[in-house]
Every structure is written in C-alpha cells, then in structure tokens.
Amino acid sequence: MPIRIPDALPASSELESENIFVMTEFRALHQDIRPLRVLILNLMPTKIATETQIMRQLSNTPLQVEVELLRADSHESRNVSATHLETFYRTFRDVRYDRYDGLIITGAPVEQLRFEEVDYWSELQEIMDWSSTNVHSTLHICWGAQAGLYHHYGIPKYALPEKATGVFEHHLVEPRSPLVRGIDDTFRAVHSRNTEVRRQDIERVPELEIIAESDEAGLYIVKSTDSSRFFVFGHPEYDAETLRLEYERDLARGIPVAIPRHYFPGDDPSAEPPNTWRSHAQLLYTNWLNYYVYQTTPYDLRSIGRDVRSRSGLV
C-alpha cells in the first residue's frame, strides 16, 4: 500500500529501507483519490519505534492511507525530543473537530496503575468518547484495549501474579470473522503485560464477542458486535527484538522479570529470537483496514457520526 506520511518522519526512511512503498506528500497530492485518514494515538514511551512498527503494518494493501499522529497533551514524554513531538504530532485540541476513517490507540506502560491514576486518563476518556462520533472504526492495543473496555463497557482489569511476556500459541474462536480471514486456526502472537481482562467479564456484555484467545495467555482479540471497536490484548506490531529490549530494560532497572516464554531459542537470552508472528500480524492489520474501514466508511467524511454504525453486514 502507498502509505502517506510526512517525508521527514524517521519512520519514512526506515520503511523505505525495508522496500515498503512510502508515498511522498507531493505524489499523494497529485492523485485523484480520497485516502483513508487514520489517526494513531501513540501512548508508548518509545514513540519513534512504535510509529514505525504500526506504519509497517498499515503498508501492505492497495489502499492509500494518510496517517496522522496524536499525543496526550496532559502527559510529558521523556523519551522523545520536544522537536519531534512538535513537528509530527497533533493534540486533541487540534483534531477534535475532524473526522477519521480509523483510529489506533496504542498500549502504554501504566498497567499497574488504576485507570483513574494515569495522568492523562481524563484526556483519554474524552478522546474515546469523541471516537464514537468522529471515527468510523477504532483499534485498541494492549493497555489501550483494557482502557477502552473499561471506559465503554465498565470491564475491569486484573493484576497477574507475574508478567505475561512471550510468544504464545492462540486459536480462533470465531474463524468466520473477516478480521481473521486468512489467519491459521492456530497461530503465535506476542503478549507483554502485567494485567488481564477475563473471559467471563466479556461474556456478560452482549455487545462484545471473543474472536481469538490462548489457553496459556488468555484473551487476545475481542470486538464489538457492531464492528466499530476492536480490542487486541497483545502486541502484533512488535519487531523481533522488542521483547528482548523490554526484558533487558527491566533487568537493568532491577525489576524481577521472567524470561519471555517461547521467545528465545532454547530459552537462552543470548540467542537471536526469530519473528514467528509476522504473517498473522500483517493479516490482522490489513483485514481491519480493509473490511472494517475501507469497505464500510462513507466516502464523505462529514457523514461519519451520522451513519457510523452501518457495517454492510460485516461481523
């Protein structure tokens, strides 16, 4: 897919080096086509790495996508320069009157706090409320998924006895869902979290359905029955080395953490971990973008909010 991002964004050169088609702003402006507008609310501290990871996943369909980056204005980011944020990121004040085909809300390393204790929780609540009327389809990732379920449906999160970190085997619960079209009946996916959402709480809400889960790691994909909200409790966008970097970071901080499960060959942290989740991750993002954004979003963005729940029969 020709993904349209600012020419100077660090992700641009990284993706081009991987032979991914990144469309220049000049070329995009001279095409007679309406690109999909996708907003990424990036709550991760490693902002540049996360930008690149998610944009890589959005880059493998024939669609043209215009990506914008959003940050929490009520939180001070310490791991990225102020210049980068000012150049490439918008705040909610900047976008609150805009409409988007898709919104992605990332994870954040704040799972062990109560939602109300997160310094940008009020702002995130406002953004999630706004997404119900100004965004056609929203994809929530990891802590973002837990936050979305808590805010929209009152579903709590629970602390785990130890961090769920590793690459786990999963199975499809709803294999006929277009969201998992082309994904194997069993597949591997990345988790990295200290809390969980429980199946029995999802089953109590008729507006939600479980799409995929793991016997070892628990829930993986949940969606709303009207296909406007998607919740992924892992990190399908992670690079091969991301779990290793997190593991080494925790060790350096003196945080007791187990070796990520089923990740290092022979459970040897000195061994190079292979990426065994790449194909399912690509299909997951591509299917969401195609079936639940492109196929059903109104051509006139001004119509989003008036008929945002019409999904043309997709389940």
Automatic annotation (TrEMBL):
It is an enzyme of class 2 (transferase). The keyword Zinc does not apply. InterPro entries: Class_I_gatase-like, HST_MetA, MetA_family. The active site is at 142 (acyl-thioester intermediate), 235 (proton acceptor), 237. It catalyses: L-homoserine + acetyl-CoA = O-acetyl-L-homoserine + CoA. Transfers an acetyl group from acetyl-CoA to L-homoserine, forming acetyl-L-homoserine. This is Homoserine O-acetyltransferase. The lineage of its organism: Bacteria, Bacillati, Actinomycetota, Coriobacteriia, Coriobacteriales. The gene is metA.
